[in-house]
Structures are given as C-alpha cells and as structure tokens.
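Hey, can you fold this?
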Amino acid sequence: MDKNKFFIIMIILIIFLNVSLLVCAEQEKKTVVLSFAHPYPSSHHKQIQILEPLFEEIKEKSNGRIIINIHPGGSLSTGAMMADDMASGAVDGGWTQQGYYPGRFLLTSLFEFSGMWRNVTELAHTMMTLLETNEAFQEEYNNYKIISLGGTPPGSVYTAKQPIHGIEDFKGKNLRVSTTFAEELINSLGGVGTNIPMSEVYDALERGIIDGECTDHTAIETYSHHEVIKYAVNNMSLFTSTGMVAFSMNTWNKLSPEDQELIESCIGMKTALKDAKMYDDLQSNALNFLKNNNIEIYEWTEEDTQQFIEIVTPMIDKRIEQIEAKGIPARQFYNEAIEIRDNFRNKNK
C-alpha cells in the first residue's frame, strides 16, 4: 500500500472515530428522564392544557434529550406529601397546593384572604413578580426550582343538603377547606373547617361526612361534584387557594447548565400567566355548568360582602402579626403584594 492511500485511510478512520464519539456524546445527553407527580386526575385541565404542552415543548427544544413523565392521581406522591417529596428529591417535580402544608409557606398564606383577587391572572402575576424581587419570598421556596406559581379562582361554598344564604347559614356546617385561612374563617363563622385532599371529597359528601366544600366553580365539573351537591354560592370570593408547580432543587442542580437554560426559557412568568388564563376562562364558563346541572345558585350580596369584611379584616391583621413574630417581614410583604396587584389591575382595566 502506498503512503497516499494509507494517509487517506487514516484520515477516514479518524473522521469516523470522531463522528462516533460525537454520536455517543449526543446519546448520553438523551438520558435525562424526569418524574413529575401530582395528586389530581389525568383528565384535569391543567395536565392537558398546561403540563403536557410544556413538557412537550421542553422535549422538542432539547431534541429529545429531556423527557418529563407525568404521574397523576397520587400514583407517585400524594397531595399531603408532594412538597416533601419534591424537597427531598424523591420525585423530580410536582404540582400541589401550599394549603396542604399549614405553617410552612407563611408568606404565601397571605394571598389566601377573602376578596383579595378578582381573577387568577392578577394573583399569578403578583406571586411571580415577588418571586423575582423579594428575598424573603425566595427563601420560602429555596428547596424548589419554581416552574410557576398561581392558584385557582376565588373560592365559594357548595353544599349537599342545606343552602348557604348568608353568613348565619355557616353555623354548624362541616365544610372541606384547602387553606389555613379558609379553615379559620369557617370556624369563626360557627362552622367546622376540615382540611382533606380533594380526592376524598366526593366520597365524604356522598356519605354525609361533610356538609359541603369550599372550592371554586371550575372544580365542581372536574371532580364530578355536581353529582353530590345541590347548592352553590356565586360572587363570594371566600378565599383563594394558591398552587405551585416546581422541580426539586436537588434534581435541578444535577442538570447541566445548558439544560437548565433550555428549561428556563420555557417556564416562569409566561407559563404562570398561561395557566392563570386557563383558569379564568374556565371560571367564566363554570357557572353555566352549575346551572345546567340543576344546582341552585345563591348570589352573594353587597350586604353579605360587608359582613365578611368586618370579620376578615382583624383576621388579616392577626395573621400578619403571627408571621411577623417569627421574624419574617410579613407586613412589608403584604403591602408590596397589594401594590403590585393594584398596579397590574390599573394597567389591565
């Protein structure tokens, strides 16, 4: 074999080897498979309209390198364990409500108050803005890489046997709640607030274990609760349930800087606002669903609202004082949240 042929063959072999190494390296990048859990049904609007498209976008942008598998219905972690499982890294990511963990997300609990939000969009915008700018709020989520913060539409009350036609009708009622504030409020009205997972509510209503639930219009259709309730209240703004979608910080720190940058381009404020708009759109249609399923609707009056304000105002002050006593700047944070909300509200009249 002459020297020229040998030289050419060696060049080809070197090129082939380099290509093989590049292919192997690319294949190694494709091995990022993450678990994402939540306690809600796979048919939930949030999984179908928000989570599935988001994780598909991440997969496409990574050329298949990052695959996020959704495990719904509590199959991998329950509502009461999700925050712990994410924080420890037992699951790579999850979606849950902070109200399942009384005493943990203290500043977040300040978003729960009656009449505080007109819609989910201004709630999500305020929460995400504070996450970017407020150090105390960031510390509350230091075990998580937040995908989005927000919540569900302002809550109301739904009962199985007896209607609620004013604050006097709360007396003696055992009502499911999902936040500490809602529990305290129901108790102050003479009822009993019972914090149980949504997955248990249908059975509890059907068996008469609870008299009703505090949730929002959209949840009634999602969980088929129109089959076990007869009465609802509209325009109440009883409370707000906040929610979080996040990765475990343990998982996040194991990702390459390139993968982190890619994922960050898909999450954050834009995802939170997309999620919020979905809920706001659903809420606007949910009232008709209740009426079409023969649910008797009571319209909350201005007089009812004023009675609520008298009860809620000292509760807000008390909650802020309790958090301040722990060395957390709750009053400053609350005032900042209201200012961000009002600025956003004025710009979007």
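Oh, and this one too while you're at it.
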Amino acid sequence: FCVGKIADNLGYLAEDYDEQLDCHAMAAGLNARLRNEDINSIFDVGLHEFIQGVIRDANALGRQIERDYRFYE
C-alpha cells in the first residue's frame, strides 16, 4: 500500500513538472514487484530475505528521490 501511494504521488509530480526521473521508474518497479508477489514465492525465497530485500529497495528509492528532487544540502 505504502509503495503504491509513493508511486502515485511521484506520478503526480511527474505530471506537474512534465518530467520522468529515475525515482519514478524505481517506484513503479518496486510497486509492481510487490503487487505481483504471492505468498508461495515469498516463502520460496524466505520471509526474512524477502523483507530485507524490500527494506533495501525502499531505502534505495528514498535515496533516489532525495537525489532527483535535491533534498540534500
């Protein structure tokens, strides 16, 4: 749900600024991956490993949003 909302809000920014940035593709990809996972494939990978991967990808998305929208000093 949260990644979907992030992707939606980034989509609104892309429309407002008429510009697609790297974070837009990352958010869409992460959202699609999470929406298409089923419980069996998660357990095949391992729940712990799956959660670690999601956290890693969410952190990478946050860093990319920071770079794309210049939130750093």
